[in-house]
Amino acid sequence: MTVRAGVIFLDIDGVMLPKRAYALAENKAELSEVGSISSARPDRIRLHPDAIAALTEIYTRIPEVRLVLCTSWRHSVGVSETIACLERNGIGKAYWHEDRACPWMPPTDEAAGLGANTGSSKAEDIAAWLDRHRGTVSRWVALDDDGDLGRMLLSVAVPGVFVQIDGNLGLTQADVPTVLSAFACISN
Questions:
Q1: Which of 6, 48, 91, 109 suits a disulfide with 86, CB 3.0-4.6 Å?
Q2: Domains identified in the chain, total number
Q3: Edge-to-edge strand order for the sheet containing 4-10?
Q4: Residue 62 belongs to a domain with what CATH number?
């Protein structure tokens, strides 16, 4: 196991693909063809350039921090396809932790019988990932547009910070200082 100073748990919808990204020319064309962003092919999606720039700045300022996917795209699109989409949009291979995604547990047969189809929560997924990497992660930040995730993450044992991202705007330069301050103890 490689020791990493910190990890960013990254959501896609609302963070890297905010609502304003739907207006980008490439995404408009894809939306007109398939009807909804959830039906779009990841190889034809353009993530918002401001979100890419903000994430790139975080990585440039703290290059020892690594990304881990914690997004519904892990199961709706697939981990490899999601990372390929991020790479096509400028998030390089060097950004990623060797264990690139949180685990996701599909719904149990009992839960599915009750109409539940979400499987494990992102907070459970983050906790499971951190448990698998016990002793190798000193700090983490979760970037997500779902405020409920922040409340659910309060019980995670490894110190971390939840940064709620505006789902209309996505990750922006205004979010960068908050993320950087969460990792201040490990930055140069």
A1: 91
A2: 1
A3: 96-101, 65-69, 4-10, 137-144, 160-164
A4: 3.40.50.1000
